[in-house]
Amino acid sequence: MSKFFNKLEQLVASSTDDPHLESAADVLQDAGCSTASIAVLDNGEIISHCISSCGDDTDTLFQACSISKPTAGVAAMRLVDLGFFSVEDCIRDLLPNEIVKLLARDPRTEAAFNAVTVAHLMSHTAGLSVPSFPGYSDANHVPTVNQLLQGRENSNTMRIQFCSVPGADFIYSGGGITILQCLMEHATKMSFPALMQKHVFEPLGMTRSCYTLKAGENATRCFWNGYKECEAQWHYQPESGAAGLWTTPTDLLKLGRGVQKSLTGDGILRKATAERMLTRVTKDIALTWFVNSIGFGHSGGNFPGFRCQLIAYADLPQNGSSEPKPQIPQDCGMTVMTNSASANPAMWKLLHAISYLKSWPEIPLFFMAADYKAPFRSLETGYADSWKEWIGWWGKWQIAECSGMPVAGVDGVLLNLRPAAIPARHYGGGQQSIDLLLDGTEQMLRLGFDGVKRIVELWNGSMGTCETLKAITYA
């Protein structure tokens, strides 16, 4: 085990005072995560580690869920570079007849169909329906792509159709990415797995990525929580481009690294193509990637029990934001893949801990994945005296001092505040946040600033929300 992952395991294991939880695997299992497979990209080099209570390892395959979408998106941009089509091309001219007939069947929305471009599909602004796909537990009753797009036969989702006009709104659409899959197959005259192998997996060395498992493959199975296995090992996902990729965290970081290198003209895509792919369209969405000024990434979740997240740092446009930009680590990122329906909090704790231990900026919280989960408790035990400047009442919350230590709570119930394993937020003038975990709970208080004014953010991990508490002053 590397020194870094040894320290990560030490941090996880020491985040609780429960004597029954002795190891990092015990803590994660109790937190709803049977396996956390982790990869870290630092200065272009990838290291990996697996914390598992069910025998998984770093070569074990997981479903990438919706991270399948930007993986397919990189293939689409490769095809753009190769001249198969442009992102500004209308899709009607690029699709097979059976898909054209499906999307043009309602004359009321034919004008909308005629206006949809490849970029609309890739930015979820085509106005198309079907946000996600639950998959199929029985391999003998899996519909074809055409059947599921029509919502017929064995399909468990509705027919894909227009629910808005192109360009009007961000409407997350796995159906739209499945249309992109059909478009790429038609343009290349290749099956989707074959074109992905040729244009993405082989060039990037993604040797543990596929869409169909071989017999006896080292693949994980799904859990409801850290202990209870799901009735089905996993679900089959015929919509390969939207949700069907099997892979490892290491391979996903090879994808992220390939896009990062493309931004400097030394990657799988032309520099201008990579910049176009990571240019914000609306909200935080670019072309299949979510973006902000310090990086790009995507989350994923497949039924019944896969949760995953990919984050890659990159110096991207501010898009009108006036917030100071932190120092952005070069060629760095992280991926966590889990096999449990309840693993989301543990996954985010690990992501925060990785960035904290690496002294990287706080994790980009993209639209659609702005999940404010409380972090692990830090290994640090000391406090800077500056926390005392926030002593007082913040709404119904009280921050106070007890035996020299910070405490906080409501209605006189005060719990210890402990340093949190999360990167501090940097503000103007060299100021940064003090992040304190309400020990034993899923809540964190971020003591920060709004200009020169002190503020307190309450991160409610159980709800995934962040609330700015109002300071109360007394005459």
TrEMBL record:
Membrane-spanning residues: none
Superkingdom of source: Eukaryota
InterPro entries, per the entry: Beta-lactam-related, Beta-lactam/transpept-like, Diverse_Enzym_Activities
Beta-lactamase-related domain sequence ranges: 29-344
A Pfam family of this chain: Beta-lactamase
Matching PANTHER family: BETA-LACTAMASE-RELATED
UniProt-recorded name of the protein: Beta-lactamase-related domain-containing protein
Organism: Cyphellophora europaea (strain CBS 101466) (Phialophora europaea)
